Amino acid sequence: MKINKNITLEGNWCGASVVLCQPVKSNFNEWVSLRKHNQEYLKPWEPEFNNLKLVKKHYLTRLKSYNKMARLGKALPFYVFRSKDKRMIGVCNILDIQRNISQTAKIGYWIGKEYSGLNFGKSAVLAVTNYCFNELSLNRVEAAVMVKNAPSISILKALGFKEEGILRKNLKINGNWEDHYIFSKILSDNYA
Questions:
Q1: How many of the other CB atoms lie within 10 Å of CB of 149?
Q2: What is the three-class DSSP state of 44?
Q3: How high is the pLDDT of residue 192?
Q4: Contact call for residues 79 and 21 (beta carbons, < 8 A)
Q5: What dihedral do alpha carbons 101, 92, 184, 179 form, nearest 10°?
Q6: CATH superfamily assigned to domain 8-139
Q7: CA atoms within 13 A of residue 108's CA, in its CB half-sphere
Q8: Are 132 and 98 in contact (CB under 8 A)?
Q9: Residues 6+ away with beta carbon under 8 Å from 151
Q10: Any idea what the Cα angle at residue 43 is, between residues 113 and 130, rounded to 5°?
Q11: Per the count of CB atoms within 10 A, which of 80, 119, 176, 187 is most buried?
């Protein structure tokens, strides 16, 4: 079973409309262009980025990995497109889906510099969070954010995620182990 290419999510926060679609081969050129254009912008928040990841062979390998994770029910990747012109502007993934007694998932996201601060990030995170609760029947959604990433923290707080604490030296970002806040939203938060 491959990624269900028919899963399309829509999000709208304060007029910033987005459509989220699962990655396909035909997204390669647009994805590479977006990554290249935002390489320096994303550098402070991501692990060291290797330009070899921008070749088609690596991209196709990544799609195979996405398909396997989706087939196993472990993750669902999405590219974020601006609704008005279908331009790719970022990524918003559902990761590490846990079932049984956990019923939880993590999310990871980024929006290109040109589109940041315009509520597109909030729209995308809102769409995947709602999908986690309403379609995947999860109880909890988590996000880990570097303590100095104020824009991402702002997105989560605006959407009702609660800060739970600090994960000390959680991820190695550009050669340094960085502390991350852990934020969560649980299903009952939507009805509180």
A1: 16
A2: helix
A3: 55
A4: yes
A5: 110
A6: Gcn5-related N-acetyltransferase (GNAT) (3.40.630.30)
A7: 10
A8: no
A9: 116, 117, 121
A10: 60
A11: 80
Residue-wise pLDDT for 87-124, tens only, equals 999 999 999 999 999 999 999 999 999 999 999 999 99
Structural domain boundaries of the chain? 8-139
**pLDDT computed for residue 144 by the predictor:** 96
Closest to 143 measured CA to CA, from 109, 107, 178, 175: 107
Residue that has been written with the tokens 């304060």 in this structure: 14
Report whether 109 contacts 94 (CB < 8 A).
no
What is the spatial distance between Cα 167 and Cα 184, in angstroms, rounded to a whole number?
A: 13
Burial class (CB in 10 A: 0-12, 13-18, 19+), 137: exposed
| Selection from 112, 102, 188, 176 nearest residue 146 by Cα | 176
**Which amino acid is located at 2 in the chain?**
K
**Tokens describing residue 17:** 């409309």
Pseudo-torsion of CA 126, 129, 131, 132, nearest 10°? 180
Sign (positive or negative) of CA dihedral 125, 129, 134, 136: positive
